User: Which sequence fits this backbone?
């Protein structure tokens, strides 16, 4: 098979790495890819023109296109490919609204009695501010649309929440993604995420994982795309797993089919485990990043037939998925300054040495080739990942990998997995 992967981050490097292990695969292309991806897939220098990409896929006889990030999914790349008879993995535009519009997701949850925080949606800033003043509780204010993980602002006081509404609705800090805001009550607890492959109706669960969204140790600092991840996540007990399947995953998948938007692809459920049980914080319509970096190395089965089965609606025939028993940890090395503005073009050294460490894989996120050198080209630069017998060893090995690498001014969290370790 010839496979095209769309995207350029750590998740896509991990996807390409896993796909390359499939005996079914003859050649992998990536649009646009990064320096790490280019070692295993041929980079295709193409932008966001879906028709152009589909033309290229048609003339190159691509058998499967795998879409990594949410933006092309929400913009309808799968619809364009499907209309041409090309197989593309991921939800179509209507189903991707589950991530693309927080209001859409909240309505679906309410209609299907899925546990989530109480909320209201506003397009008018004055009405939103009135609500905040009347309600007077700690809230989270969220841009309705896609904002690269940055559109969620805590509003723990009336002033903070009012400012958040102004930032989103008046200053348009996230552009059209902030044409409306969702204001929801703050939930207290430990976060966990849940990843499921869905073929429109059948659901196949991945092992558990958890990321660290905050930029600095102790879950302090600013919200980021994710500074590290680990799998398994001990917070997700078998009882919680069953509860989430029954109360969240099945009703979501059925609810989407009932409104004529069958969901095919990766359903990622972000949860808060509260004293009153798990409640949904968000849905994503693709693998988490950096969660993919710890989930895919643990998958023993071939990913390619699983993705094909999601498209064809035959996932039930592949229910016997095999997993490696080892645990995985990923430490993200980020550019100095990230998630605030940061410099790029810094030379990265030690990549080969890190890869020689037992169980370590270095997945590239924001990198590019510059002559002989691999240089930084994004906020999150590398996902240094390790697989080992248990979580503690996986974390230690991942940090050994980090120690072998040098990037001027880089920063990373030194406490990845601390909540999990305290539970074990
Ligand atoms: P989201 O993109 O909606 O998952 O929000 C990003 C992050 O903000 C989550 O991972 C949580 O850490 C936090 N968050 C969002 N909504 C809430 C909420 N209702 N209560 C507490 N924390 C929240
Ligand atoms: N790591 C969180 C996300 O991918 O949305």
Assistant:
């Amino acid at each position: 098979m010839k496979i095209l992967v769309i995207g350029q981050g750590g998740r896509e490097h991990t996807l390409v790495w896993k796909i390359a292990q499939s005996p079914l695969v003859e050649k992998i292309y990536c649009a646009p890819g990064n320096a790490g991806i280019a070692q295993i897939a041929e980079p295709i220098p193409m932008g966001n023109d879906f028709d152009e990409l589909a033309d290229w896929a048609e003339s190159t006889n691509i058998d499967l296109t795998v879409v990594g990030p949410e933006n092309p999914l929400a913009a309808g790349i799968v619809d364009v490919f499907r209309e041409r008879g090309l197989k593309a993995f991921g939800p179509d535009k209507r189903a991707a609204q589950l991530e693309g519009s927080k209001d859409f997701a909240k309505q679906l949850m309410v209609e299907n009695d899925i546990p989530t925080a109480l909320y209201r949606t506003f397009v008018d800033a004055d009405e939103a501010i009135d609500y905040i003043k009347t309600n007077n509780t700690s809230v989270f204010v969220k841009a309705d649309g896609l904002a690269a993980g940055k559109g969620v602002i805590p509003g723990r006081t009336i002033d903070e929440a009012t400012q958040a509404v102004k930032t989103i609705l008046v200053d348009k800090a996230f552009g059209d993604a902030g044409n409306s805001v969702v204001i929801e009550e703050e939930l207290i607890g430990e976060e966990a995420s849940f990843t499921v492959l869905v073929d429109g109706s059948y659901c196949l669960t991945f092992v558990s994982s958890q990321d660290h969204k905050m930029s600095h140790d102790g879950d302090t600092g600013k919200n980021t795309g994710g500074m590290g991840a680990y799998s398994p996540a001990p917070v997700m007990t078998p009882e919680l797993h069953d509860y989430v399947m029954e109360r969240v995953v099945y009703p979501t998948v059925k609810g989407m089919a009932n409104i004529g938007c069958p969901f095919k692809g990766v359903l990622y459920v972000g949860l808060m485990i509260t004293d009153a049980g798990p409640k949904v914080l968000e849905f994503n319509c693709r693998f988490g990043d950096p969660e993919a970096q710890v989930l895919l190395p643990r998958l023993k089965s071939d990913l390619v037939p699983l993705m094909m089965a999601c498209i064809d609606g035959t996932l039930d025939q592949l229910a016997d998925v095999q997993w490696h028993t080892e645990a995985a940890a990923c430490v993200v090395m980020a550019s100095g300054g990230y998630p605030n503005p940061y410099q790029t073009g810094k030379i990265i050294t030690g990549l080969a040495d890190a890869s020689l460490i037992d169980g370590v894989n270095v997945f590239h996120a924001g990198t590019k080739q510059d002559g002989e050198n691999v240089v930084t080209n994004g906020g999150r630069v590398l996902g240094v990942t390790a697989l080992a017998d248990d979580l503690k060893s996986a974390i230690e090995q991942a940090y050994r990998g980090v120690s072998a690498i040098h990037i001027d001014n880089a920063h990373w969290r030194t406490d990845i997995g601390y909540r999990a370790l305290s539970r074990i």
Residues 137 and 185 are 7 Å apart (CA to CA).
